[in-house]
Amino acid sequence: MDISIIGSGYVGLVTGACFADVGHNVICVDNDRKKVETLRSGKVPIYEPGLEEVIHRNVSAHRLRFTESTEDGVKHSQVVFIAVPTPPLANGSVDLTYIEKVAREIAAVLTEYRVIVDKSTVPVKTGEKVADTIRRYNKAGVDFDVVSNPEFLREGCAVNDLMNPDRIVIGANGDRALALMKKIYEPFMAPIMVTDINSAELIKHAANSFLALKISYINAISAICEASGADVEKVADGIGADKRIGRSFLNAGLGYGGSCFPKDLAAFIAISEQLGAPFTLLKEVQEINKTQRERFVKKIRDTLWVLKDKKIAIWGLTFKPDTDDVRSSVAIDVANDLLREGAVVQAYDPKGMARIEELKLCPGIEMKGSALEAVSDAEALILATEWNEFNNIDLDEVKKAMHTPIIFDGRNLFDPGTMTQLGFQYYGIGRAGG
Ligand code: UGA
What we know:
Layout: E1 2-6, H1 10-21, E2 25-29, H2 33-40, H3 51-60, E3 64-67, H4 70-75, E4 79-82, H5 97-109, E5 114-118, H6 126-137, E6 144-148, H7 158-163, E7 168-172, H8 175-185, E8 192-195, H9 197-228, H10 232-240, H11 261-274, H12 281-304, E9 311-315, H13 330-340, E10 344-348, H14 353-359, E11 366-367, H15 371-375, E12 380-383, H16 388-391, H17 395-401, E13 406-409, H18 416-421, E14 425-427
Parallel strand pairs: 1-2, 1-4, 2-3, 4-5, 5-6, 7-8, 9-10, 9-12, 10-11, 12-13, 13-14
Antiparallel strand pairs: 6-7
Helix pairs in contact: 1-3, 5-6, 9-11, 9-12
Uridine-5'-diphosphate-glucuronic acid binds near residues 211, 215, 256, 257 and 320.
């Protein structure tokens, strides 16, 4: 199949690379000239495990190329995917200006039948709007179909998620478009679920909101565990063993962050209100997420007392491990909470530090070259993002380097018993000693 993908961000780039890897011819389009030049020169602008290799392999095999021209993409493909950003507006609703702009651009160059697929996360009924827009701006009245095909990949394991999805959701209103979509996904061996366009759009927001709800649910339980002396990990294992509940996304911690859950929850709340069916439960999910971080910072304050001028180390600043993405990272919020109270924050993250400095997200933070450097002379260590590197570190060395060996483990990475045996004062989330 000949495919073009408009927008070379996380979703567009990973989707394009993986489609090429299963044998399709893919053109990735982006209006950012610098990004296109970077990609053409063989460099990948984001850190995503395995992605660079897949891109190189498929560029060499001439199945993947990059362009700035929407016309080039639309002209040389049967199916055009839209994967541009849908950022939040101040009131939480979704800014759809990029989607609208791309719809107009496609309309301007559409000369024969194409399937236009929305992969970006969009409010229900966006497909209808995209179709209206293309119809309005395509003077020639060319036949086309709009399809919704939401993406469920997670950053940090995006290539694997895309190559081995649990399901593929295709929202289509016609057989011609559906047949082409099925052909694209034939090599993926995953169950294909066909729905109408509105349902497919809703599935994405409903899925992300449910996952965020699971996280807030276990975080609320973690507060009860701390108050009662129970262990949240054991509770999560116990409830997660019930197949109807499942163990995944029941890891208590500092709360969810990233470019998806916070934005998608706010959007889904706004959409539900606009539709006159307010989803108030999700407001509580947001509230628990905020409280979880506040409880954590309070625990640090209660333990260390005055934070002003205290050296505090933070390990991990990205919103989750295995990514360089620092958008809406709870770790950064914690760092800023401490900086506001006058603490001296010494941080280390394997991939996120350059971007934080570039975007000036943590003014005053001291970035260190290694995990051990970050804990030097520190009066406490905060584990904020559970990079594997921190799991393999020599904790005796850490203890020796610290001024006072106190650990606040915001992701329950370490075992409380082992930490206590090693001589640390250990505080986890929802666990004994927490
Ligand atoms: C999320 C969804 O998991 C994907 O299915 C979806 O495609 C994506 O959003 C999207 O809409 O594009 P992502 O944000 O990349 O993926 O990362 P997750 O692995 O879902 O983690 C999100 C946040 O939840 C992280 O801050 C993580 O630390 C936190 N989390 C996750 C927990 O606190 N506890 C858990 O048990 C799981």
